[in-house]
Specification:
The protein is mainly α and about 70 residues long. It is about 25% helix and about 0% strand. It contains 2 helices and no strands. The protein is elongated, with a radius of gyration of 28 Å. The termini are far apart.
């Protein structure tokens, strides 16, 4: 199976026109996959991890915790 990737605007009547450079594939059977861009959905999917910085109230100082854990191994 040969893959051809094109980017185009679908006409208001639903038509899609292949460029003339692809005339050799006219009339052949093909499977078409349409990927539509959704800029709103992409922006909603992005997460800013800095939004959560300094939001956890940790009950122990990080350095003290690390020293205690290391002391357990000795």
């Amino acid at each position: 199976m040969k893959a051809v990737e094109l980017e185009m605007t679908i006409g208001t009547d639903g038509s899609m026109r292949l460029p003339d450079a692809y005339h050799q594939i006219y009339g052949q059977h093909a499977r078409i996959v349409i990927l539509l861009s959704e800029p709103q959905a992409m922006e909603d999917a992005l997460i800013n991890p800095m939004k959560y910085a300094n939001t956890v109230d940790w009950p122990v100082d990080g350095l003290t915790y690390q020293e205690n854990v290391r002391d357990e191994w000795s």
